[in-house]
Model the fold of this input.
Amino acid sequence: MAEQREFFYRRLHSFLGVVPIGIFLVQHLIVNHFAVYGEESFNQAAGFMGGLPFVLLLEIFVIYLPILFHAILGVYIVFTARNNVSRYGFFRNWMFKIQRITGIITLIFIVWHVFETRVQIGLGNAEANYTLMEGILTNPFMFWFYVIGVISTVFHFANGLWSFLVTWGITQSPKSQRISTYACIVVFFAVSYLGIRTLIRFAYGV
Amino acid sequence: MAEQSKVTFIITRQDGPESAPYEETFEIPYRQNMNVISGLMEIRQNPVNAKGEKTTPVMWDMNCLEEVCGACSMVINGTARQSCAALVDQLEQPIRLEPMSTFPVVRDLIVDRERMFDALKQVKAWIPIDGTHDLGPGPRMPENKRQWAYELSKCMTCGVCLEACPNVNDKSNFIGPAAISQARLFNAHPTGEMNASDRLNGLMEDGGIDGCGNSQNCVQVCPKGIPLTTSIAAMNRATNIQAFKNFFGSDSAL
Done:
């Protein structure tokens, strides 16, 4: 049998994007949403998450390694495509292109976000609490950087969910693919709301 | 129709596989019901460009002239399609002709589509029934399935889906949509089914089905209306199941 490694890597890439990365993303934004109910409740939630047993192992195997793999192969995938929306301006072709653009934006955003929060906390320069995020997001530049970062991440997740369903052979017929497009649009707006609402709370206290 | 008395073609030409491409403009007399091929034939008869210089005739590939062989595909006004079915009356002028950029150019508008035939070999898109003795009649195929499979069998390996696919290019080894759909066609055949796992394993080899990025241009541009993205999704499911069988070993290769 000839080499089938690429197939395995690409399937793993698709799988990891949803499990665990997609699940983590939604969970992360839901927990952050505690900020909307007040400083006290955010700090309590952040404290609970940060105090989970084996938290470093959980982070490594559920977050860091999957994202690292997804990002490295993802960048390779971006550079092997030759986008042609000017000639073939179909909806899905645009989604294909935006999926790759948001992937790169998301990668830049996540690197910065992790450096600014998790790394600084790890180095003892900061504490995972409401004040840290308030300090970051009251700067209008960082607020808009986070807005773009969150929307791009959520788009990449929602559209990735659509192609996950195709890659795993769940949605085959054009009709099922169309309905799942609508479903993923709903996911995009719902999860975007979660993220942006929290950012507004941190930045403007409302 | 005085304003229609001339047809202008701007053709991307290339003298050989290694030479640099260049553009040449031709003006030819208009005739009623012309298609792009009859325009090219006119240029071949009198190879003089718009500046009045004598030049070499433009080379192109053609065969059936009724959109079933796939040989005359080229990029016409930015869209890959068959030049025999491209009617001059329906095209914006000047008419721009280019070779399909996904494939190596042999000369002018002639491209080498060999990678498509290599792809068919990779997925074993045929039914192995040759032998030294009579194998007898094969299993019967239900009529509704035959009608459905007929749609997939319309593929003429014309290359338009590969040209439109952003993931088929010189930076990737993706075999493209056509061969994936052909694997589905032969796996649906009652005799072909007996070798289904061979084709699925071919699809899982490097450059195989995993190269699809779901831009879905292929299904939009296919001149035969083949449901290519449905075929890809169906083969996604089948290869995933095959991969599990291969790894966990239930009924191994079958």
Q: What stands out?
A: Residues 155 and 224 of chain B are 7 Å apart (CA to CA). The first strand of chain B starts at residue 6 and ends at 13. The first helix of chain B runs from residue 36 to 45. Chain B touches chain A at residues 78-79, 164, 166-167, 169, 171-172, 201, 204-211, 213-217, 220-221, 227, 229-230, 232-240, 243 (CB under 8 Å).
